[in-house]
Amino acid sequence: MSMSGLPPPKPIPLKERAAIVFVERANLDVIDGAFVIVDSEGNRTHLPIGGVACLMLEPGARISHAAVSLAARAGTLVTWVGEAGVRLYSAGQPGGARSDKLLWQARLALDDAARLRIVREMYARRFKEDAPSRRSVDQLRGIEGARVRKLYEILAQQNGVKWTRRQYDRSDWDASDTANRCLSAATACIHGLCEAAVLAAGYAPAIGFLHTGKARSFVYDIADLYKMDTVVPEAFKIAGKALKGTLDLPAERAVRMACRDRFRQSGLLSKIIPDIESVLAAGDLPKPEEQGAVRPAFEDEKGLADDGHRNQ
């Protein structure tokens, strides 16, 4: 039992949650045991935080200690992002890396042959064809980049969008053109969702295979498996409508809503964690078993959440 007399919440499996919720210019708190969003006029909106995979806080949002605590216990990732999600400043952790999975992930990343097998598997899943033979990780990265740039050009042409290249200035959001702003908003959605899945599954966001050297390299690896089939087409579609003047709301907000609907329609949340496991299995190295470890004095009762959530 918790200090308030209420039992701790049992996290809902990630696949059964809503994907993401953006909050700006509002206070987030716990009132009468419920997660509540309060706007500048004092209007309250109750949010079933345990049914959300990722909560994105934009400029003007403030969150209380009680709200962060409840989100963590419910297994909801809280992220602090820039305007329209163009930059991710920080992220809470709904669970934590499991030692067996973390050791396996690190071993796969440090083994050159295993890493190449995983990158080839990612390529095959992304482009629905085997990767070219006798290519290094760096060469495959270059090939993927060229193919993605070509897909951007095709989608831009299909939606009547003038396209030069992917570019944006994190310090000056409005300096980017409409298409790039829509792509940034869409990418923030898929990255937030995939980071929630990576953490819930018990892996480390920083240990990537195709992407390396970033705090969320593995998140980018996993997001790339889906973004060209989900959020990128939506971004170009919304950009085309915005340029034609047929949108009745800001383009970035329209992108978020479209991504939310696409996540729901595609059942993406039910796929990400199993896909992470099968992609890493392509490295063909056995998971290490912890040996000689002292068992915990008190075993936690098995709950309903995905691997990695605290208080399962």
If you had to describe this structure to a student in words, what would you say it looks like?
By secondary structure, the protein is of the alpha/beta class. The chain folds into 2 domains: 78 residues, Ribosomal Protein L15, Chain: K, domain 2, CATH 3.100.10; 183 residues, Four Helix Bundle (Hemerythrin (Met), subunit A) (Up-down Bundle). Helices cover 43% and strands 12% of the residues. The chain contains 9 helices and 8 strands. It has a 4-stranded mixed beta sheet with strand order 1-5-7-8. Strand 2 and strand 3 form a beta hairpin. Helix 5 packs across helix 8. The longest helix has 23 residues. The radius of gyration is 20 Å and the shape is flat. About 3% of the residues have low confidence.
Give the termini distance in whole angstroms: 14 Å
Low-pLDDT regions: 291-300
The proportion of strand residues reads 5-15%
The CATH class of the largest domain, by name, is Mainly Alpha
Number of domains: 2
Instruction: Choose one word for the global shape.
Output: flat
Could you state the oligomeric state of the chains shown?
single chain
CATH architecture of the largest domain: Up-down Bundle
In brief, what are we looking at here?
The chain is an alpha/beta fold.
Topology:
Blueprint: E1 18-23, E2 26-31, E3 34-39, E4 44-46, E5 52-57, E6 62-63, H1 65-74, E7 77-81, E8 88-91, H2 99-110, H3 112-127, H4 137-158, H5 178-200, H6 217-224, H7 231-244, H8 251-266, H9 269-281
Parallel strand pairs: 1-5, 2-6, 5-7
Antiparallel strand pairs: 2-3, 3-4, 7-8
